[in-house]
Every structure is written in C-alpha cells, then in structure tokens.
Amino acid sequence: MKQQAAKSKTGRRQLLAAGAGAAALGLWPLSAVASSPTNTAEIAGKGESAAAVKTLRYAFQIAETGFDPAQVSDDYSRTITPHIFEALYAFDYLAMPVKSVPLTAAALPEISNDFKTWTIQLKPGIFFADDPAFKGKRRELTAEDYVYSFKRFADPKINAPLYAGVEELGIKGLLELRKQAMAEQRALDYDKPIAGLRALDRYTLRIELEQARPRLLENLSSSDLLGAVAREVVEAYGSNIAEHPVGTGPFVLKQWRRSSLIVLERNPGYRERYYEAQPAADDAEGQALLAKFKGRRLPMVDRVEISIIEESQPRWLSFLNAEHDLCYIVPNDFVSTALPGNKLAPNLAKRGMVLHRVLAADEAFTFFNMENPTVGGYTPEKVALRRAISLGLDVEREIRQVRRGQAVVAQSHVVPHTSGYDPQYRSEMSTYDPARAAALLDAYGYIDRNGDGYREMPDGSPLLLEVATQPDAQSRQYDELWQRSFDALNIRVKFFAGKWPEQMKAARAGKLMLWMMGNSAGSPDGLEALQYLYGPQSGNQNISRFRNKAFDTLYERMLVMPDGPEREALFLQAKRIQAAYLPIKTHVHRIRSDITQPWLLGYRRPIFRNEFWHFVDIDLSKKP
Questions:
Q1: Span 461-485, mean pLDDT?
Q2: Rounded to the nearest 5°, which phi and psi values hold at 332?
Q3: CA 622-607-109 angle, 5° bins
Q4: Distance between CA atoms of residues 468 and 106, nearest Å
Q5: Residue 34's pLDDT band (cuts 50, 70, 90)
Q6: ω into residue 97 within 30 of 0, thus cis?
Q7: If DSSP states are collapsed to H, E and C, what string results for 419-430?
Q8: What's the maximum distance between 2 C-alpha atoms anywhere in the chain?
Q9: What is the pLDDT of residues 312-343, one digit of tens each?
Q10: Which of 120, 298, 318, 581 is deepest in the core (most CB within 10 A)?
C-alpha cells in the first residue's frame, strides 16, 4: 500500500461489485518552475526547438522523501520511482478490471501448478540510462539485476520500510539471508546464492516460494516498488543512492530541490516502446484513448516538472493561471467553486478543462499505537476508550465540512476495487453516537474525578490524547473538528504538528499515540490493506502494532488461498476483528477529482499504478 497524508497521504476480484457501487455514485471517470536553460537546450539539440518541448507540469501537496525504491514508502516518492525504474510487469493503463502485462518481461510467467515456482523471461536489449557508474559502457538489464534488487529489501543496513511485504512473499532463503546479516551486524551478503532467487541465464529469472502465492503476478506488477536497480550504481553512490536514481524507465532525474522542485526528462536511451492497452469493449473513454494514441512511441512528453506546494490556495491558483497542466486532486477548499454538484464548473468547462472523477482504491484512517500506555492495549477498558473515540468522531461532518463531499464513509480497512471489499458490509466503524461514547467512558471508569471538567484514566491519572498533525491549513481544519469532538466527550487533547515525512518516521518508530493518515492500494488484492493489522508486520506496514492471533491466522490462510467465496468469507471475519478491537479507525474512502487543461491529452487516473506520464501528451497548439 502506498502511504499518504490523509489530510491533504493492490480490481480483478470483487471489482464488479465495487464498480456497481461506484457507478451508482457517478464516480467512474467523466472524461474520457521554470525550465533549466541547459536541459531545454539539451532536448532542443535532438532536433526540436526549445518552444516545441512538451513539458508536463503539476504539483504534489506533500514533499517527497527520496528516489530509491527500497527506501521509500510514501505515495509521492513512489509516483516518481516507477517512471525511472521498471518492474517485470505492470498493470495495463486502460484495462478495467485490471490486467497485468509484461513490462521488461518478454511474456507472462511460467507458473507451476502449486503456485510456488515462477519462471520469467526478460526482453533482451533493455538498457539502463547512461550514468558515470557504468564507466562509459551501455549497461543491459539482466535477470541478475532483479535478483539483486529483490535482495536489497532484505538488507538490514537499508532498513527498507516495505520489506515486510517482500518477506511475506516467502522467497526461499531470503529470510535466512537477512537473519544471518542481522546476527553478524553487517550488510547482506549479495553474492551468496539462495534457492528462491536465481538467474538461470542472462535473461531468465526463477522465483521459488515456500508456500503457494496465487497472486504473485500482481506483486510483480508493482513498478513503484519492485523496479530493477543496478548494483554498480548503488555501490557507486552509497548512502546517497536516493539522490541518484538510475533505471531503465522512460524518464531520468535532471534536477531536484528537496521539498520544492523535481524535474525529469525523457530518457534519450529508452527503448522503442509504443502505446498499447486493452480497455474493455464497453469502456467508451478507454476505447477512444486507444484509438487516438495506439502505436505512438512512448513517452510522448519530453519533460516533467513537479512542484511541491503544500498549501491549497497557491496550488489551485497555479492551475487556474495555466502554470500547471493538471490539478491532481482538486483541493477540498475549492471543491464548491470548481465542482458544484460534483460537476465541472461552467466557467472551467468553457475554458476547455476536463474533469476526471473516480472513487479511489484508498482510505483515510486513524491508527492507535497499541503499545501506547494511554490508547493501546487489549483489556476491556482500553478497547472501550478506542471505541468511544471512534463513536465520538463525526465522519459525516468530516466529509461535508473538510472533505467537501469528496469521500464516502468507510466500513473497514479493505478498500474499493479490491477483493474483500463489499459495498453492502456495515460495521460500527461508520457510527457516530456521542451519547453512547460518553456512556462507554463512564462505564469503564474514564470519569472526571478532580472537577476540572476533563476525564481521567480509570486509575485516576490524567487522560491526555496526543494527536499528530501537519502544519498546513487543511490539517488545521481537521484539528478543529477533532477538538470539537473531544470537547464534547470531555477529553483533553494536545495537537502537535510536524512535516509528513518526520511524522511518518515517528509513527514507524512507535513514538506517536495516534495520527490520521491514508494509503492507496497498489494491487487488486484486498489483503494488502490488511497488512496494517498483521502482527508480524508490526512497525512496518502495521503502524498500529496490533497483534491478534486469530487475525494473523486468517491473514496467513488468505495468503495461500486462491480467490473465491471461501477467501471472501475470511475477509469478513478479519473485518469484524478490526471493528471489535479498533486498532485502526477507518474514516473514509476518498473520491479523487482531477482536472486537466485542454492541452493535456490522454490522462486517466490510474487505479493501481502511480505511473502515467508516458501515456499523456501535450498539444502545444492549444497552450496560451
């Protein structure tokens, strides 16, 4: 799952059910920094005038953390990385339900009947972008590069935040290799062969697993995570590797000002790759896009400039002033003017702008640190406190006032468009009942003993909730809403703001009591979302540090089971455990509304992939 700031930051199965709910809401897509003189001249030197350079410009609302696939987990960095690094497979740009297609692989994998052995042939003639680490030689992608790249996630010296997701693939020998490095307090021995990752020859990769993994192909399609890196590049740049991404993808990093500006340009050595997709026969928008772009060489734009603009007003104004080609997520503060009645405002439509609106495969949630002495624990009074907090949060008001209607109430941690998601499922997760919340607190001893107007803990010690937040205008709106909710319950609360990357580090280290954040699915398997509750991933994806034997058993059974009714029944049991213990309060599934300028062509918000730059074009004749 791609982690995000919720306050701004994985459907083949059950997609029909999820899609029906989305269609009922009208949520399927409705639409079908100055340039560096040196970089612009470089592009122009290839036969194009500087004026003809096609540059895609838009803004992130949260800063990136770096560009090493093994070291990032945030959605913003993981939007950059798949445009530089390439995985073996990718999700088709237009196919719904989603479909995995070869990217650097020559074909779909050969799979053993027990889903334990996967053999993959690579396309020959794919090269890494030129870099001094290659000492003047063209460096071809080989099967050994994927062996090395997968192993990097297990290196304890890297401390990959998403290692647990790779570990649970059950690659033979990988865990033992990691344990040996940890025991000897050293880096991983990359030269030691393991049974589960082998390059049979220059272009043949074999993956052998401890247990069946029927959905491994979906994992291998995560370009933002499992893209190939070159060993000599990693060794050349050492601890600075996150600043020097070198891959086989369609773009290369040309400029980076941390938390300010990211500039990429078309990879001049990118192989011949052409626009191809497989939209459904009844997907009119997808069919139109395919007809328009089929056979075009990728990428179609020359340059991409990403500005980091955390405040919504300047981000929106940059788009309105035609400084940006894409408004990636209309800021909540401007939804009422930009999207009256959830339709594009007439004044924007007259300018030729296009609205793209979809119920996303994501969520916003609040996690409780289950190891925190105030809100953590499994005893009845601790569960009662978390349930009371949940019952006291008015999510409908959150949607109306802060999100401006751009979300639907969530019932569990499983997100739309994924297996396990049932639009008919209901739980206490969505209930707002402050009277019941107060009664729960009273019944379990959270009462005001000293007459100061605030409740104390059952043992008489102070009850203080410490809520992590961010220093931006929208976060302050959430804080005000929370303050009102906690005041109604007579609970004292303290908010402390910090930049999202710093708060994320603190959360993983178990230093936060509770924090609202978000994630989005990277594949159509709903089990990916439940990693946030799986005990062995405590401190990684499991930020709440929740541990429950019954839940873990369900999770492990679902890992190896094929799709079907039996697996869906286990999803239901898992969702009920979340609702009972409430280590995570899932607030909403977000509706994503993007607006494109009339000269940005071919855009379609991806559901399970972050990369789209190479599938869009800029019509320079329409630009002002």
A1: 94
A2: -55, -35
A3: 115
A4: 46
A5: very low
A6: yes
A7: CCCCCCCCCHHH
A8: 79
A9: 999 999 999 999 999 999 998 999 999 999 99
A10: 120
**How is 369-381 classified by DSSP, letter by letter?**
-TTSTTT--SSHH
| Cα–Cα distance measured from residue 265 to residue 613, given in angstroms and rounded to the nearest whole number | 11
Q: What is the pLDDT of residue 4?
A: 58
- Rounded CA gap, 98 and 286, in Å? 13
Ordered DSSP codes for 236-247: HHGGGGGG----
Structure token pair of residue 9: 């930051």
DSSP strands (E only) in 449-558:
464-469, 492-497, 514-520
For the chain, domains (ranges, CATH) are 31-60+62-293 (3.40.190.10), 362-591 (3.10.105.10)
- Identify whether the C-beta of residue 384 lies closer than 8 Å to the C-beta of residue 391: no
CB 133 within 8 Å of CB 237: yes
What residues form DSSP beta bridges with 518? Answer: 4, 364
Nearest in space to 532 (alpha carbons), one of 467, 583, 587: 583
DSSP 395-413: HHHIIIIISTT-EEE-SSS
381 contacts 445 by C-beta, under 8 angstroms: yes
Among 446, 451, 518, smallest CA distance to 489 is for: 446
Residue among 264, 601, 572, 550 nearest 411 (CA): 572
What 8-state DSSP symbol labels residue 109? P
User: What value does the mean pLDDT take over residues 85-107?
Assistant: 95
Residue 119 forms beta bridges with which residues? 110, 206
* Residues β-bridged to residue 595: 327, 355
User: pLDDT at position 537, please?
Assistant: 87
CA distances from 587 to 124, 429, 430, 431, 440 (A): 47, 8, 7, 10, 20
Residues 142-192: tens digit of each pLDDT: 999 999 999 999 999 998 988 888 988 999 999 999 999 999 999 999 999
**β-pair type (464-469, 362-368):** unpaired
DSSP 8-class letter at 82: G
Residue 595: what pLDDT? 98
How far, in Å, CA of 544 to CA of 540, rounded? 9
* Secondary structure (3-state) at 297: strand
C-alpha to C-alpha distance for 412 and 427, rounded to whole angstroms: 8
Q: What does the alpha-carbon distance between residue 410 and residue 421 come to, in Å, rounded to a whole number?
A: 10
Q: Has this prediction a pTM greater than 0.70?
A: yes
* Closest C-alpha among 8, 614, 598 to residue 322: 598
CA 205, CA 123: separation in Å to the nearest integer? 11
- Bridge partners of 618, per DSSP, are 600
Question: b or e along 403-442 (b: 16 or more beta carbons within 10 Å of the residue's beta carbon)?
Answer: bbbbbbbbbbbbbbbbbbbbbeeeeebbbbeeeebbebbe
